[in-house]
Amino acid sequence: MRAERELISDIESPSKLIRAVCATEVVEMVVPLIVILPGLLALALLPFPLLPEGVAVATHGHSYNEVLPLMLVRYCGPGLIGLGVTALIAGFMSGMAGNVSAFSTVWTYDIYGAFLNKKASDQHYVAMGRWCTLIGVLVSVGTAYLVQHAASIMDYVQQLFSFFIAPLFGTVILGMLWKRATKEAGFWGLLAGTVTSISLWLWVQHDPHALRYVALSPDAKDMAENVYRALWAWIVCVLVTVVVSYMTKPRPVAELEGLVYGASVLPKEHDDHWYQRPIVWAGTVAVVFIFLNIAFW
Fold this sequence. Notes:
Shape: globular
Largest sheet: 2 strands, parallel
Distance between the termini: 43 Å
Structural class: mainly alpha
Number of helices: 11
Strand order of the largest sheet: 1-2
Radius of gyration: 23 Å
C-alpha cells in the first residue's frame, strides 16, 4: 500500500495519469479489431465456408480457428508464409512467457511469500518460482485439452472470463470506489462470484433446460450464456462484498488516502481545450455504447 501511495505521489498531474490510462485503453481496443477483422474478411474472401470446430472435424472442413493460416496460404507466397507463421509463433511465445511469469510472481511473492513462508531466503524463493513455472506450464498443457469441447477458442476464452474476470471486476470496482470495502469482503465476494459462475455453467451442462434461467431464454447461444453468466457472477460478487464489508472492520481512512475514491482529495483540472476533458470522452463512449447496443439488439 505504501508503494502505491509513493507511485501516486510521483505523478505530477492527475490529468497526465488520466491521459496515460486513456491512451492505454485505446491501444487495448485495437486488439479486438485485430482479432475480429481477419475473421470478417475470411467470411467474405475465402472460397469455402467456415464451420464450427466440431462440424469441421466431422466433415473434414475448415473451422473458424483456422482463419489466419488459411488467409496466409491464400494471399502470401512461400517466403511470406514462413514469416507469417514465425510471427504467429512469436506472438504465442510472448503471451505465454508473460502469463507464466505473472503466475510465478503472484504465487511466489503474493501468496507463498506473504502467507505460507515469510522468512525464506532469496534462493528458496527463486527455486519456488522455478518449480511453480514448471508446474504451471504442465497444468496449462493439460487444460488445453478442454478447448476441444468448446465450439471455438473465443467461446472457451469467454467462459474463462465469465468465471474469473467478471467477479474480479466487481471486486476491483468496489475496492477503488468504496472506502468501506474490506479485504475479507473482497476475498469472499470474489470467491462467491467465481463459484456462482462455475456452478451455473455446470448446471447448464448437466441440464440444458436450465439455460432459460441462466440466460433468460431457452434459445440463447453460447456467447449470450457467457454474458449472462458473467452478469450473475458480478452481481453475486458485489452483493457478497457489500454484506461482508458491513460485517467486518474497515481500514482507517488515513490508510486509504490516495488509493480509494471516497478517501482522496480530487484536484480540479483546468484543461485548455474541451476535447482534453475526460468527461467529454466518457460521454462519447457512453453514447456510442448505447447506440451499438440498440443497433445490434
